[in-house]
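User: I've been going back and forth on whether these two constructs are worth ordering. Before I decide, could you fold them both?

Assistant: Sure. I'll take them in the order you sent them. The first construct and its structure tokens:
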Amino acid sequence: MRERTIASHFARAALGGARRSGFDYLPLLQQLGISPELLNEPRARIAPEQFTQLLQSLWLALDDEYLGFGNAPSKPGSFAMMCHALIHCRNLEKALQRGLLFYSLFPEAPRLSLHREDEWVRLSLDDSQLWDPDHFLSESLLVIWHRLGSWLIGQRIRLEQATFSYPKPAHGAEYDLLFPCPLVFSADQSSLLFHSRYLHMPLLQDERTLKHFLERSPADLLSRPDDGDSLSSRLRRLLSRDSAHWPDLEAVAAQLHISPQTLRRHLREEGTSFQELKDQLRRDIAIYHLGRADLSLQQIAEQLGFSEPSAFHRAFKKWTGLTPGAYRAQEQ
């Protein structure tokens, strides 16, 4: 219930390669219970579970793990085979090098490289030759390699910077879920920067844990937003503990041992506000319950702290572009 929902943009973007190749994906959406009308609503959101299923289904239907965005297809199973090739490496550096070497064996594959910069290391992607108008493959590759590395060593690799070879896209506000770090757009290259200390860490995974990991990856790596360690993420975790009794800003500030003014300022620096975080969490909890028939609209409104169902209706339409009733009808 606390999982962040995925902006409809990412589902539309994922379908771009299928559209380009003339693949009729409407039966696929119907099978997954994803309404085309919902996807066409710019503010709509979908559950992470649906996004995972959509990606896995598209890979199989298109016979391409690059979903039609690369210069040549990547046969389903390539990612799994790469993971098997690196799982017995001694440390993260060896594993990343072996993984990148694996993909370099395919001449048309997107080029990724690892470079030291003093105490830092930069994972760079050459996305100049990709057909990727929404940057879906570029974003996916960077996210997958970051989260794969974190999974291998059993701890989250803290990103210091993410750079992109293109201007900030229209969905740039979603980037804090993908890359919880300072962002630079219109850079020379797309890349991720992190501390080199992670490279020496031993791999904590093995063939047994890899089997379970591959049942849902790399789709799961893309559909589980990274909560990170920003103040916004900590606040979200704190608020989600008890959605029936929403604490006010003063109470939250007291729990974090800072003044309300300091809390407001830090959130402003992260490009958000207390009200915005609360609304995002309410939206995600509402979408969770609307996708299941466990609560009536009135019960959902009450759980989210709305005194009147009409206030919930207005708020939900403002967040997603749809009324709760219309949203539930499209999910059934």
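The second construct, handled the same way:
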Amino acid sequence: MLKYMLQRLLLTIPVLLGTSVISFGLMSLTPGDPAEIMLRSGGIQPSPEAVAAVRIQMGLDEPVYVQYIRWLWRMLHLNLGLAYSSGKPVADELLGRFPATLALAAAAVLVLLLIALPLGVASAMLPGGWIDRLGRAAAMVSTAMPGYWLGLLLLYYGAVKLNWFPVTGMDGLGSVVLPALTLGFGMAGTYIRLIRSGMLDALRQSYIRSARARGLRESVVIGSHALRNALLPVWTLFGIHFAHLLGGAVVVETIFAWPGIGKFAVDAILMKDYIAIQGYVLFMVLIVVAVNLLVDIGYKLLDPRIRLGKAS
């Protein structure tokens, strides 16, 4: 296990290097002068002399490969640069906003589990019944409804009309309910279908008949045998979605003005803050790599027969 984890961590080095090359190259090809943008964000009229002075100060007058090497050297020292819009270090901005994104992601996962797990299991236990029809209807609505539309509906009725929750921002536990519902219900449809199909397949297996023949309680048969094996494909998809949530649910955070890293990325794109965008991209790569490693370890916990590394 430890050897496998070290190998995976070493593989992140070329991944980060390749991502840095792509992100830096794309940012250098985008229209707009960072020096001019920086001056305008500071309320200064960008005259040609001022733009030239800022370009020299930022090193933008040098060749692209020299700029990349200097930027990469700063990255190795965990210096992501200064955001144009706020003038604060990008690393501080990301780390300061990450707890808000983490709280929203945890709440969305809780909503997802409360909806998808009971409906998926009950639909498989009683196929063709009213619970099964309810689960399939909920899955269809969840899959078909766009996240931004659901968010706007919840915002209008839950915050504006009924005044049950804060409209936007992060102000107490009530403010997380609407964005968490938007994210959790939006993902629930796929998981209801996956859990249902996995449970139906597991319940047909011989080891389930053997467990029932040994006189095990039905709750043990379902929870410890059928559900555990049915969750393997679900766990794979969950890793992808959880990395997306930790990277900031861009649309939902923007709709609800949630102060997470997703909204920070949107603001950076609108301001053409190239330094902030590059820092966000590298931060996202680290999150995806870490979550994928945790997902692989989770396979081992769900199914001890799985071997990590070359033996697998």
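Notes on the second construct follow. The chain has two domains: 2-76, 99-272. The first helix runs from residue 2 to 29.
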